[in-house]
Fold this protein.
Amino acid sequence: QVTLRESGPALVKPTQTLTLTCTFSGFSLSTSGMCVSWIRQPPGKALEWLALIDWDDDKYYSTSLKTRLTISKDTSKNQVVLTMTNMDPVDTATYYCARILLQGGAFDIWGQGTMVTVSS
Amino acid sequence: QSALTQPRSVSGSPGQSVTISCTGTSSDVGGYNYVSWYQQHPGKAPKLMIYDVSKRPSGVPDRFSGSKSGNTASLTISGLQAEDEADYYCCSYAGSYTSYVFGTGTKVTVL
């Protein structure tokens, strides 16, 4: 059974750096074609794609956020980490991680999401 | 990269069919056969309903179907049921630089 679970702080202050961890099971990120992505959703708003890392450690970022985002993986721990710098209240959202079987393909399995509020 | 355009809401009575459009550009929807659709109930994570324009994952009812023409993709729900009431999002691959773009979302109401 494939599962993903997001973890991280529920509250961060403006200008701080957010670090989120996606811990997954049921697949290996060293398998050719496998990818893990981060997507967010502000309250009452649409989904927004953020970043992706693939089995070969190639990384891709949203063009509008790429200067603030870093994605990395620890294959031995089955974890993918996303950091977002200089947090702002507009970054308040539920952050999801999701699996992709082949780059270009769909997000077939999602975590339950973690809500992050940016406030002083 | 601009979000794909979806109608804000669609509605139908039980048993009817509804279609949700998803309009992009030749750089995303029109350029790749990598359009997917997600169903999201309130407070829940999105669920994959359609991938690669028209393919259904195992367990998704065949009432859900997808298609694409030019820069516009569509999701059709036939035989609408109460449990289909949810938000629906389209998503398209947009190349190795931009990667992915989501739609604006559509709320489906079962009357």
User: Anything to note?
Assistant: The first helix of chain B runs from residue 95 to 98. Strands of chain B lie at 9-12, 18-23, 35-40, 47-50, 64-69, 72-77, 86-93, 100-102, 106-110.
